[in-house]
Amino acid sequence: MADYIKPLPNPTPETLPFWQAAKEHRLVIQRCTSCGKYRHYPRLLCPSCNSAEMEWASVTGRGEVYTYTITHRPFHPGFAEDVPYAMVTVELEEGVRMVSRLLDVPTEEVAIGTPVAVEFVDVTDEFTLPMFRRRRA
Amino acid sequence: MGEITLKDQCCIVGVGHTEFTKGTEKTVLAMHVESCLKAIEDAGLRVEDIDAVVPYSVSSNLTCNEQLMHHMGLRNVGYSFTKHQGGASMVASIQDAVMAITCGLANNVLFVGGRKGFSDQRISDMAAKKVALPPLPQLQWVMEFELPLGNVGVGTWYGAGARRHMHEYGTTSRQFGAIAVACRKHAELNPNAVMQKPMTIEDHQSSKMVIDPFRLFDFSIEADAAAAFVISSSKRARDLRQPPVYIMGVGEGHPDVPTCSTEKKCMTEMQGFKDAAKRAFAIAGVAPKDVDAVQIHDGMTYPVLCALEDAGFCKKGEGGPFVEEGRIELGGELPLNTSGGALSEAHVGGLNHIIEGVRQLRGQCAERQVENAEIVFVGAYGDFGDGGVAILRR
């Protein structure tokens, strides 16, 4: 495998379950077990009810493109080969958002409202990153 | 005991800065000390009069309070702090100086900041140096969940909101360009400005797309620049060298989600800036319609458009049309960034916006003077929509 030079996540004990699930190709999002609300990015307390009780809940991975940018000029050498590339902000069905790449879509076709589904990409032996692919609505 | 009001208790009494250049041999420390000495001299104060310091820190290598005290031989410091709000830090720190002086904890508060954005810390070199982001704690989620996928830096953080603003309100890239053009027009009248080559909207539109929707001319310039200013009580100000510039109102604000753009409920406003403006106007007892000129920190064009909406100069979503047709240019209804701002004068972390506000109110702006400027709004956003606002008057 060629050397992977893109930056990798540096998980903390609080975020590790996200990456462990990703390695298993599962998308998990924190959910408050007191009031049931999802939140992402991870937090120690629920933003709705302040409870510290939570679980990492499996989610469908389905969502829609909420907004996007297109990088034409890389600000890190790891992405030099990728430009131009779109970063999509996806709003998942559960109401939380993630930022990732949209696989196999030319940058001119990236649009707000496009239905997407998560697809996991094993980038190194240690890390798997969640990315997205277009899906039929 | 009656309620304490911060309104008009203090004045900005001295300002100073280095030459703004693309390349200097001076160290950051030397630039900071130079700026401090100039500001103190401008006020008609002496170094020994300084009893509080507020250095600016966005990333490492910048001068901390103890270094300043050491190198300047400050002996009587009873108050010092550094706020961490990205580009909003300096403006948001004004309220603390006013508070300290009003409560008798300090007499003359010295602010300083700036960096070698061209020589040392060129963002455009980051790609080669593999330095994606400074290791700031507030960037924890961005570093972990966004950077590995390719979301690198302010262009993506604010670009996502900008694209959403364009989607919801029909805002256009040409309207971002109107801000860049206004700043450049003003820079042409300012001998201190780094960029003075005339710019038209068409020039802006033909500049290369960097992070869509942002083009090259949507980003602030890289320069080596440092600046400083001094705040004293209004009583003391009247005896000092310059016409006093009163601090009418101050405010600090933070968004509900201060660590990223992605999670914000609303991605098309800067909630912290909105709150800071509201607080400052409330203390000042004036409204946006009373303001004669605005100095808004412009790390990029779009956040300024958003800031004008969020502060109430126009309705949310109307920022695009608002900045067109010369409204924000000298001679227009609401001149913006009359020294050229970070887009054309230099990026000095909001310090040059504060200084320009002061100079306008002193009547020291020569060709770029806003006639009869009575009230100037100084605002800065930072990180993911933090805000700092100071409303100044003569």
How would you describe this protein?
The complex is a heterodimer of chains A (137) and B (394). In chain A, the strands form two sheets. In chain A, strands 6-5-4-7-8 form a five-stranded antiparallel beta sheet. Chain A has one helix spanning 16-23; strands at 28-32, 38-39, 54-58, 62-71, 85-92, 97-101, 115-122, 128-134. Chain A contains one helix and eight strands; from the N terminus they run αββββββββ. Chain A is globular. With 137 residues, chain A is mainly beta. Chain B is α/β, with parallel strands linked by helices and 394 residues long. Chain B is built from 14 helices and eleven strands. In chain B, the strands form two sheets. Chain B has a nine-stranded mixed beta sheet, sandwiched between helices. In chain B, strands 5-6 form a two-stranded antiparallel ribbon. In chain B, a hairpin with a 1-residue loop joins strand 5 (209-212) and strand 6. Chain B is globular. The two termini of chain B are 29 Å apart. The mean pLDDT of chain B is 94. Chain A binds chain B through residues 5-11, 15, 39-41, 47, 66-80, 82, 85, 87, 89, 96-101, 112, 123, 127, 129, 131, and chain B through 123, 126-128, 130, 132, 141, 143-153, 155-156, 159-161, 163-164, 167, 208-213, 256, 259-263, 267. Strand 4 of chain A pairs antiparallel with strand 5 (209-212) of chain B.
Give a nutshell description of this structure:
The complex is a heterodimer of chains A (137) and B (394). Chain A is mostly beta strands.
